[in-house]
Predict the structure.
Amino acid sequence: MSEGDDPLTIDRIYATGEFSARGFGSVRWLEDGGYTALERDADGQPILARYEPETGERSVLVPAAGLTPEGSTRAIPVADYQWSADGGKLLVFTNTRRVWRRHSRGDYWVLDLAAGTLRKMGGDLESTWLQFAKFSPDGESIAFVHQSDLYVQNLPDGKPMALTTDGSATLINGTFDWVYEEEWSLRDGFRWSPDGDRIAFWQIDDEGVARFPLVDLTSGLYPELKWIHYPKAGTTNPKCRVGVIDLLRESAGSGDSETITGSMPARWLDLPGDLRDDYVARMEWTPDGDLLIQRVNRRQDTVQVLEVQPSDSTVSTVFRDHDPAWADVCDDVVWLDDDGRAFTWVSERGGWRQVWVIDRDGAEPRCLTTQSQDVISVLKIDPENDALWFLASPENATQRYLHRQSLSGGEPVRVTPEDQPGSHDYQISDDGRFAIHRWSSRSQVPQVELVRLPTHEPVDRFPAVRNEALAEKIEELPRVREEFFQLELADGAVVDGWMMYPPDFDPEAGKWPLLMHVYGEPAGTTVNDRWGSASQLWHRLLAQEGYVVASIDNRGTPAPKGRAWRKSVYGEIGVLASADQAEAVLGLIEAHPWIDAERVGIWGWSGGGSMTLNALFRYPEIYSAGIAVAFVADQRYYDTIYQERFMNTPQANPEGYRAGSPIHHAGGLEDPVLLVYGTGDDNCHYQNFEALVNELVKQGKQFDQLAYPNRSHGIHEGAGTSLHLRRSMLRWWKQNLPSGPVAFD
């Protein structure tokens, strides 16, 4: 370590904020071309500032005083906010509480800018239990969920009116149970119709779904049990149906305005398929007042796009997307005309993730992005300006760049400058003339700026965020060289990877230990050219301690390399992926004679924990030690929607489940392993930990284990938890995979 270097420590990463990156926002573009940003004033209180992108002019639209309730001396904290369509009212989400993964319940307040009034919503309903409040299209009402029931409330001071009254622990209106939220990313479960006269909503019925207990042994003298309805692979799913509520209105007595006075009973849509085994994965209103529903079969190889007339449940199939492996739902439906007769759809039906145009009147689907490359993310579809804006990176799967293409087809044009390698994201204005541009790379701390489109010219008067202080902190650390690489496997597949070298790395000094970080499942990648925050710093710390650290993305990860790459693992999760990982390690050893083949470690979390176990159990001749955190030992223990998407059911694919589950290969363990789990993990259950322990004991295998009482999947709750976990991991590596070089034989 060179003179004057400031060593990285676990405490600096996990107990201080010195490596936190500043951002800008939250930003909301306005219809008139301006935008608002959530900021803090000199006293640290929240304010909303308005910016004019053309001139950079800034004004305080909502000062802290406007967010301060009567009788209080401080503004309410702002977790999120939204504007009414006319920009005259502000809805603020505050006092939030966590529901499973995210803070999705809390309190809501409405600020009327013209009247200067700030009112708390929900009336006498229990505080902190409001969810997903949003304005009606005319901005005169809000609707929200409270403890599994839907409500509507007239502004400014109406009382909440219940739209449903049957909500319970098992019957959920307007939001979702565990499995729908976790695997379909569904939380907000209701939609206002374009005219504001109806509300469509999901209802989830968990009756009949087996319950799983989370056992708290430390909060009292006796255990406390928290039961969650959790459908494991091959078991009974929740029922799901869609209801439509017609709202009753009366004249408000002034002009043409009307106020909501009540509602009709919910009318249930008669959708094709089974309530349990066919999912309602997405739902939205069409511009002309019908519902567009994405219906997915349990096998998840088909997405039916249904058009439903809400008045009589007349159903017609607009489009059917099928894939022999699994078909993905679409979050990029954009209407291409005022009548809503055509919309965009993203599909892999052509072998790549491409944008298609679907006609509700039955014309053949038309592909817009015909190139043999993946559209990573659609950012904006702008029919008025004939523009399709999307992220892609056909030359480098680890990066992300903005592209623009005509809606009539043609070649896409890269908009992101060539001299900004890394990963980019854009929040594009309604008129497509400006964008908030956020980007970073493994070597570039996060940047935020305002750019003009399509020239990508930075707007000078924007308060750009460069994170200079963070960059200086990084510069003061011991130098750790980091590089990306590609490796060709025996069958011609090319995997991407990154590698970090210790500060004093010298290939002539001897053989160095190699420590692999793995995820490897279809839900994520580890090889990304973007700032990695605490995860990147953790691996930098391991390099500082004398390890060469690397990671590769095997086949089956969601890299932009085409459908065949991503879906090659169907029916055998854990098999091809661990084989790719093992072959890649052998390739690295062959390419770098300074890697010590007797000191190869591997670690991962969640799916990466499962992959770590498969690596150790299947390839003990390659790996020397491993740490598996929050893993799935037996794929039958995970939920229906995720596991069956990639594996079908255990009943239909018993051999695939057996082959891909680490527990069935535990007899192959020959090297040290540390098993880490939170006993309160609602996602991957502690059941996996105990089942694997039983099997290892049965097989006569030695292992180390570390269990954190009541911690969830992230193992971060409770004072000192993150520090304890990381210190334990580092100490374990030092004991079981000695760091630094050893002399060549």
The chain has eleven helices and 42 strands. The longest strand covers residues 239-251.
